[in-house]
């Protein structure tokens, strides 16, 4: 008896996207623009971290932010009001961005004038980790109130991230957050991951993170 032919659509979609992401990286390299994919769950402090980085970037790089959300333009307007060039990307219900969506957003900027573009991805620890956006590196934020078990529960996010930023460390006295545990889990998944502890609210740790990012941008754009 003849059996039905099975086509793994997700696998095909991911393969096509990975190829397109490589093309986008080459396009950005030619423009000398570094792209960072910023991921996390909702409320971890993505936008507040970008705002806290602004003083360290001023006079050193030209940068802009693509804010991706299912709806609303709250975060993009917040950044614009702070003087950070930003555009809003609406995904129409999709929980992630892929390489072509990212390309569409970048085209809204004058790339020749930007050294660094941040894609603030949809707040989600699952879907965004599956799709290569064409970024030069991935950074994920984990906030202390979320708990230290997220790398164990959402391993792919930490496998694909080059940098882990643990935010809201000013709340450490209130929460049972095991720094050694979260570091061990993250490094078991990705031995090369860089880990920073910050408080976007108080500014603690921001200089160290900013210095790393500036060095990374220079390295990518060399």
UniProtKB/TrEMBL annotation:
Gene Ontology terms, MF aspect: GTP binding; GTPase activity; nickel cation binding; zinc ion binding
Keyword Metal-binding belongs to the record: yes
GO biological process: protein maturation
This protein's UniProt keywords: GTP-binding, Hydrolase, Metal-binding, Nickel, Nucleotide-binding, Zinc
UniProt entry tagged with the keyword Phosphoprotein: no
Domain CobW/HypB/UreG nucleotide-binding: 37-195
InterPro entries the record matches: CobW/HypB/UreG_nucleotide-bd (IPR003495), Hyd_mat_HypB (IPR004392), P-loop_NTPase (IPR027417)
Domain of life the protein comes from: Bacteria
Family designation: Belongs to the SIMIBI class G3E GTPase family. HypB/HupM subfamily.
UniProt protein name: Hydrogenase accessory protein HypB
Organism: [Ruminococcus] torques L2-14
């Amino acid at each position: 008896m003849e059996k039905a032919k099975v086509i793994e659509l997700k696998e095909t979609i991911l393969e096509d996207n990975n190829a397109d992401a490589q093309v986008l990286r080459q396009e950005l390299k030619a423009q000398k623009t570094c792209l960072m994919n910023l991921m996390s769950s909702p409320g971890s402090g993505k936008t507040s971290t970008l705002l806290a980085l602004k003083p360290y970037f001023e006079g050193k790089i030209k940068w802009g932010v693509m804010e991706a959300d299912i709806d609303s333009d709250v975060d993009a307007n917040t950044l614009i009001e702070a003087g950070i060039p930003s555009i809003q990307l609406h995904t129409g219900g999709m929980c992630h961005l892929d390489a072509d969506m990212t390309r569409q957003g970048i085209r809204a900027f004058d790339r020749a004038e930007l050294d660094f573009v941040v894609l603030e991805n949809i707040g989600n620890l699952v879907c965004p980790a599956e799709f290569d956006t064409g970024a030069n590196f991935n950074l994920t934020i984990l906030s202390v109130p979320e708990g230290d078990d997220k790398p164990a529960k959402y391993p792919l996010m930490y496998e694909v991230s080059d940098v882990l930023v643990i935010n809201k460390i000013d709340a450490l006295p209130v929460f049972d957050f095991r720094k050694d545990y979260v570091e061990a889990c993250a490094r078991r998944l990705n031995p090369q991951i860089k880990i920073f502890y910050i408080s976007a609210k108080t500014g603690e740790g921001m200089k160290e993170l900013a210095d790393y990012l500036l060095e990374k941008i220079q390295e990518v754009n060399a």
